[in-house]
Amino acid sequence: MLGYARSQFAMKMCAGWNRWVVDQMGPYMGGDPKTVPMALIAAGDQEGAMREIEWAAARGFRGVCLGNSPTYGPTEPGKLQYNDPSFESMWSLLEEIGLVITFHVSTGKDPRSVGGRGGAIINYVCHSMETTIEPLVQLITAGVFERHPRLHAGLVESGIGFVPWLLETMDHAYRAHHFWVRPVIPELPSSYFRRNCFATYQEDTVGLRYVEELDLVDNMLWANDYPHHEGVWPHSAASIERSMGHLTDESRAKILGLNAARIFGIRVPAGK
After folding, report:
1. Which of 117, 124, 141, 183 is the most exposed place for a label (fewest CB within 10 A)?
2. How far apart are CA 263 and CA 36, in angstroms?
3. How many whole angstroms separate alpha carbon 231 and alpha carbon 41?
4. pTM more than 0.90
5. Which residues are CB-neighbours of 62 under 8 A, at least 6 positions away?
6. Is the dihedral of CA 120, 126, 132, 135 positive or negative?
7. Are 7 and 50 in contact (CB under 8 A)?
8. What is the distance between the alpha carbons of residues 203 and 192, in angstroms, rounded to a whole number?
9. Beta strands 197-201 and 220-222: pairing type?
């Protein structure tokens, strides 16, 4: 009960932030939006989360941000995870009303896990950036996108250099460990990523190197992460030229904006 009460409290805090967003940005969210904030959802309070998703959709939100774990804290046996069947109604609702799922770095768990020597880099790499991987793998391999083909989910700010490894590793496990794989989704995990998922980055030269060759152009979204210091602002133009010079104009246009417009339903003026 204590864990559930904490989840309810977390959902109340998220709801407070969502209402502040509507108060401050509501006039700029509808029609041709100038801003596209995500509604924060604490999924551990499943009933509260469902109500908040419906509230957010009615007020112009185009996506939600779920924590990288449904309930805050370390992974433990028996703890609620996104592959649990109890989330099926949430996936159905998000698919029906067309809200995009996002998973942001440093959520769901405390990223300040290691102190002392190297702590700043250790925590950034191991306890912040990589934490978006597990929830997306849970959705893919639990068959969520097979059952909800119009649902989309993406990883925010965690980079894209790991994506080729992730797809290859998921597909390898799907084949090599087939005796233990349940459910048996009819397509390779990488197919669902290409069809239903995306990832954002600030500067990721390695991640961009093979996006055309690996058919991942439609899955990558650029961001400058203004005004955080790990982003590329105010040197965005130089960063783009430095990392995207090898890509075609069509690929660059998709990654720099058209993919985001497609995923979040933003109208692009003719000729742009």
Report:
1. 117
2. 12
3. 25
4. yes
5. 33, 36, 98, 99, 100, 264, 265
6. negative
7. no
8. 25
9. parallel
Tens digit of pLDDT for each residue in 6-43?
899 999 999 999 999 999 999 999 888 999 999 999 99
How many other C-beta atoms can be found within 10 angstroms of the C-beta atom of residue 181? 14
Phi, psi (degrees; rounded to nearest 5) at 69: -135, 140
Residue appearing with tokens 């046996």: 77
Residue in the block written with tokens 């246009």: 253
For tokens 């929830």, the residue is 135
pLDDT in tens, 246-264: 999 999 999 999 999 999 9
Question: Look-up: residue for tokens 């069947």?
Answer: 85
